[in-house]
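ok so for the tutorial part 2 we go from a plain amino acid sequence to predicted structure tokens. step 1 is just haveing the sequence, like this:
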Amino acid sequence: MSPALPVLYSFRRCPYAMRARLALAVSGQVCELREVVLRSKPQALLRASPKATVPVLVLPSGQVLEQSLDIMQWALAQHDPEAWLAPTEGTLGDMLALIAECDGPFKHALDRCKYPNRYPDADATAERATAMVWLGALNIRLAHIPHLFGMHAALADMAIAPFVRQFAGIDADWWQAQPWPCLQAWLARWQDTALLASVMHKWPAWVEGTDGVAVPAAGYGDDDGDGTLR
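step 2 — the prediction. this is what the tokens look like for a chain of 230 residues:
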């Protein structure tokens, strides 16, 4: 494995890691992917980032990016071919503000709806109601434009969609029954993208002391799926 590659510690289903992989993939940034088993975190991850959560990107310079949004913005600063940082409506600051709502109040409610056993003192019904208000506002926004900030998908869409996906997966029938046709269509379109499929490949767990998977620019996977660069 080339020592010049950034190293990404990731977990396939984690929405934070998912958003980071999406940005790295669309930017064409080749890196060494190390799939982490969260119940048995490798020492290399803990040395790089004591917070011990994914994603973590270790750059060839030694700089460590520990937050998913920092990874997204770093990748897009290198190359942003689909203008994720330049929406047709609003600004980068506007997008970051909406993402903060997702990562704050909505994520708080999402966790308590999805994992009620972890939060026995929480009122799951009230938390669902909180989430519904925010999701309803997204539906209203999407009634006028195809994406959250205009005519093409941008940073906000890619940062928020993994969490909406997680919420929708709690109860798929309930999700489909809600009066959010624009939001449901937006999520369905995103879930059907080749980009998402490309970053959801099931790689084996990384073993300490071995090379990770070299994930090339075109689709976070190579022609035959063996992780070798062409």
